[in-house]
Amino acid sequence: FGFSPDGTITFANEVASSILGCPVDDLVGRPATRFIAALADHDPAGNTMTIETVVERTDGSTFPGEFGCSPIRERDVVVGTVVSFRDITARKRMENERERAASLVAATLESTADGILVVDATGKLTSFNRKFVEMWSIPDEIVDRGSDDEALTFVLDQLDDPDAFVGKVRELYAHPHAESFDELHFRDGRTFERYSKPQKVAGSTVGRVWSFRDVTERHRLDEMKNSFLSAVSHELRTPLTSVLGYALTLEQSGDAMPAADREQVLGRLAVNARKLQRLLEDALDLDRLSRGMLAPKRAPTLVRDLMVRMIEESGVADDRPVVVDIEPIIASIDGPKVERIVENLLRNAARHTSSGTRVAVRARARDGGLLISVEDSGAGVPDDLKRTIFLPFQQGSEVNKHAPGVGIGLALVARFADLHGGSAWVEDGDAGGACFNVYLPCDVVSARRSTTPRARRITPNS
């Protein structure tokens, strides 16, 4: 339609009539702004322009429209304006669908735990998520420039084998239809899985999608699992071999075996059976503790009797001097759990020291609770292990080759301490070696005077 300088419609075609829902004769004479309010800001003498706006029909309904204006001139005088407009509802619907799809893709990329990078056929970065930038610690200025080569150059110093990394990238760029999967190992100990697939549009390869997944923790857990299985198999093999051997001896000897010998064999069977039971209990307890399925059952316990009994049952004094310094106190603790604490500390001392090494066992009231210490004169614990040694499957380097252990004993010590609301830690011993400490908050009272000396030295085979 056209309108005069005063804004009145002077003519309209049938398409305008149809779109606006008004006969041509009824359109003429009406203000143009009645249908397109944005025309109020139009400069009649201005150049041709195209604007998206809202168009109102005669019945009051609206639709998204696009209009353009051109001046009508007679002898260089503007005598009116021609407006051409169209209904762009379908186009807007498609644009909204594209925006929603793009928003979904962007949200998906940002919510994934993988780092995603997309490059075009020339190697230019076209898309990526924030996780990718964080995983590779790439500065924003490099990402903003969009150069794949510049990004590659930046990350190379982080890798154990940068040549292999670049070689795989070049190989895939030379074969745009190829897919790839490999692992990247970093100098800081991290491990990434790298996937790569071609990006295709209408069957043609237009770029490449790279995804990176941090599997460092999974690898660590796999290593822990393998170490655990290896240690468990070793720990099981020795007592199982003994049980089988003694059982066969009993079976083959029948009644011919002297009573004293039979009693000794049965004793050995019981000892090795208890070792198997202890190993299974450790593994099960660690699992229960990790799931919060155990709670302390406190009861007044004579600490000295408990600890001396565990020293004797552990066998630690069989081949090394043990100094016992235990105050005569009664503590409100979960006795069976504290027995496991003392037992595992003693086993740890025996496992990490050679025969004849002195071991000191102490217990005393301290700061509203019970402090238990087991100190040895061995090689000690390196500083970098003092914080991690109480984690499952972590072991020190100086392990007895004939009894490597499973790596869960100290983890149980820490968990049982935590169960009591306490803590476990290791520090350097006064005379070298390591001193393992466990503090258990609890009610502590003095026991009756005992005839047992407060400080006692248990020598091998005593």
Description:
The longest helix has 38 residues. It is elongated, with a radius of gyration of 41 Å. A hairpin with a 4-residue loop joins strand 6 and strand 7. Helix 11 runs antiparallel to helix 12. The protein has 462 residues and is an alpha+beta fold. Helix content is 39%, strand content 27%. The strands form four sheets. It has a six-stranded mixed β-sheet, with helices on one face. It has a five-stranded antiparallel β-sheet with strand order 2-1-5-4-3. A five-stranded antiparallel β-sheet has the order 7-6-10-9-8, with helices on both faces.
Low-confidence stretches: 397-404, 450-454
What is the CA–CA distance across the termini? Answer: 116 Å
Mean pLDDT: 85
Strand content: 25-35%
Shape: elongated
Global Rg = 41 Å
Question: Largest sheet, order of strands side by side?
Answer: 16-17-15-14-12-19
Instruction: Count the beta strands.
Output: 19
Helix count, per DSSP? 12
Alpha-beta classification: alpha+beta
Largest sheet: 6 strands, mixed
**What fraction, in percent, of the residue positions are helical?**
25-40%
Q: In summary, what is this structure?
A:
With 462 residues, this protein is of the alpha+beta class.
Task: Give short descriptive properties of this protein.
462 residues; alpha+beta; elongated; 19 strands; 5-stranded antiparallel beta sheet
Helix-strand layout with pairing:
Elements: E1 2-3, E2 9-11, H1 14-20, H2 24-27, E3 49-56, E4 62-74, E5 77-87, H3 89-111, E6 115-120, E7 125-128, H4 130-136, H5 140-145, H6 148-155, H7 162-174, E8 180-185, E9 191-201, E10 204-214, H8 216-253, H9 259-290, E11 299-302, H10 303-314, E12 322-326, E13 329-333, H11 335-351, E14 359-365, E15 369-376, H12 409-419, E16 423-428, E17 434-441, E18 444-446, E19 455-458
Parallel strand pairs: 12-14
Antiparallel strand pairs: 1-2, 1-5, 3-4, 4-5, 6-7, 6-10, 8-9, 9-10, 11-13, 12-19, 13-18, 14-15, 15-17, 16-17
